Structures are given as C-alpha cells and as structure tokens.
Amino acid sequence: MTPESLLGYGLNFREAAGTEMYMVGFLHYKVYMSASSRLLPFFQKTAKTLSFRPFIELTAHKFGDATPETHNLYRGTLPDDLGRSLRASLSPGPHLDYLNHQMGSRALVELDKLLEGSQINGQRRAIPLLAWSRYTVVEATSYAIYGEKHPFVKRETVDAFWEWQNYLVSHLMGLDITGKGYALREKVFKEYIKYCQKLPDDASHLMSEHQRVLRSAGVSDTDKAKQASIFTIASFANSAPTLYWTTMEIYSRPDLLAEVRSDLEAYAIRGSKEKGFVLDVAALKARCALIVSVINETQRTRQINSSFRKVLSDTVLDGKYLLKKGNFIQVPGDVIHSERAFWGDTAGEFNPHRFIKREGGQPSSASGFIAFGFAPYTCPARNFATTELLILVALMVVRADISLVRGKWSSYMGAPVNTSELSTVPSPKTDVEVHVQVREEWAGEWSLQTGESGEN
C-alpha cells in the first residue's frame, strides 16, 4: 500500500483515531494524517520542509511518461519555473481574460447544441448527464487553452482520456499489468504531439508559455507535448464531476432551483427574446452569491480526495507533532470539510446558503475550504475553473428545465462513486439519463459579457 491508496479513506481513519493528527505505518515509511483545519496554517508555515514538489516530479514521471533526462530536470528548478508561468497566465489580468472569453464562447455553443438536440422527431431525447458534463468541460476548456484545433477535437480522444483516468492510481503504483491504461494514454499523447508540432495562432498564453519554459529547460519536443497533457488531468477531471453534481443538487431541489433562477434573472441577465439575452459574468460573480455558494457547498460535501506533502527534513508541527524526514503528510478533504468544530453541527448536511455572508455575520471561512488545495500550494487555475462552472451552471439553470428519465432524484444523490479516479470530486459509477426542455421565455440568442478578471 502507498499514500495514494489512502485516497478517500480519511473519514474512516479519523473516526478510528479520534485525534487531530495520527499516523498510519507501512513497511518503509509512515503517513501522518491531519484531521483538523486548525493545523492548516502550520503546514503553510513549514512549506519548505513539508513540500508538494516531490509529487510534481512524481506525476511528470508516472503520468507524463518523462524520460530520465526530463525527470531529472524536475528535481531542479523546473517545477518553480513552471509554477511562475502558470500563475502569471492564470492570475487576474489579460491572459486570464482571454481564457475566460474563449471558454465562455464555447460554453454557449455547447449549451445551444444541447438544447437544439434535446428532441428527435418531436420526442424528448435521453441525455446522459455525466457524459454531457465531461464532453462540455473538455470542449470549453480545450478551446480556451489550445484554440479551435485542440488535441480533443476527435471524440475518441475524449473517450480515451476519461478511460485513462481510471488507471491513474495503477500507474502511480506501477500496476497496469495489461497495459490497457498506457494504451489509452498513448492515444491522448499522440494528439498532443501532433498539436504541439506548431502551436496555432489562437493558442493561449498559458499554453505557449508552458511550452517555452519546457523548451528553455532543454526538454525534448516529444516530452514537451506529453507533459502538456498532465494539465488536463487537473482541469477536466475536477470540473466535470463538479458540474454534474452541482446540476444534480440544484435540480433535485425545486425551491433552490427557483431561488437560483430568481437571483440570476434579477442581477446577471439582461435583454429580451427579440433582442437577445446577455449573461453578465462580472455581475454573476459579484451579485449572485447563492449560485457561488451552491458550487462551493457541492465541492465541500462531495470532495473525497486528499492533499499530500512529503517531509523533506525532520519538522515539529505546532510545537508538538514530530514529523520525520522521508515520510508523508495527508490532508483528507472529506475530513476537513466535515469537521463539526469548524463547520458546526450541520457539517454533514448540504446547506446551499452556507457560503453566503449574512449581515452582521461571516460566511463559512475559506480557511477550512480546501477544494482547490491550501496555501501555499493552491490550484493556480481555481479562478478559471470557478468561472467556467459559474457560466455553465448559470446558462443551464436559466435556459433549461431538467427532469429524470426514470426514478427519483434521491436515488441518484447518494450513488456509489468512482474511487479509481484522482479527482477531488469523484464521478458517479453510473451515469443518469435526463430530459432537457428549453424554457421558452428564455429561448433566443445568448451572449456573454465577460469583462475583465481584475474587476471580479
């Protein structure tokens, strides 16, 4: 067993140990499990000795198939150089504005396609919601980062990517004995290698800078393309299930659906059927607190996977926990997000209003919300990912009614999840089929006003 095999088991260990820090022993190392949000600031203070960097090196090797030469570069300054490049491209400013604009324009196309194809010969068509969420996130994100002729233009490449995700844990442990997962990965690599031969003019600054940093470090053309594919594991695999579950959470609650729609219609949408409708993304973020809260609460209640650190040298945490060099730290997201001492007695319940700041009070603090990791290793794409989810959910909620093809909502909300993935929010093992119906009062041409990210 390795640290990776502990993913999703944090709650069980916490209940057994009954303390805020406990240890799980293995043959040659230990995993220190943190079960309290109180300790998060101490991890930040000791970031030089409790580091995420070894896992960047690990994923470059295990997922990106890095050659020994490239793998060795990740032991030097390359992770820092790539990190600076990512932050520069994904922080509020013109580069993020471009990504948001491109992503939003493709999101509109995918919603139009969904609504236009919701019926066949007058009969409502059954739509697999998870499959649609996955395809839409891949399309919108790829269009933004890579341009129109992105590596996932072929549907079989999209399918190969999602099948590959089921083998990530096996690849970390070197247990893909049949090689099926590697064959699926190779299909994705093939498209990246072809794409990276000459980046198109509409490739984003994020992509061009990523390739520039790798090229400057001496990484080969083939390895540059393979390493580029790793970014999609974090971006696609986390956003798609979050979109799926957020949609399920809203549509399964008629009162919440009506409240979210009321907010959006009042503050973020203008126009008419005759002149067209506009979704104001800046207003969506600033004035529609409920939809933001619902997305956050979905991540809080659905997250199962963990953040990891490696102990680079003996470290005393909070003056009382001795962490020995060569071992690992695991911070399980499900444990932190269900901690009653932080979230209150309703920690185990879905409260769509939890993250809304009330007059004279405070919202649930971001210090205990680690859907995008915790400082100093937070996800650099969190602003882009959140904007993408907001746009897709808002457009869906206002423009469409969704009903189940069969069964009740409650029977799907607690469905078994796929723990073989490494996404923070897991996908259900079985997709759900829905009927999608256009809301006639909101039928017509739609556009986005994305604004500048610095305004949000």
UniProtKB/TrEMBL annotation:
Gene3D superfamilies: Cytochrome P450. One of its GO terms (molecular function) is iron ion binding. InterPro entries: CYP450_monoxygenase_sec-met (IPR053007), Cyt_P450 (IPR001128), Cyt_P450_sf (IPR036396). This is Cytochrome P450.
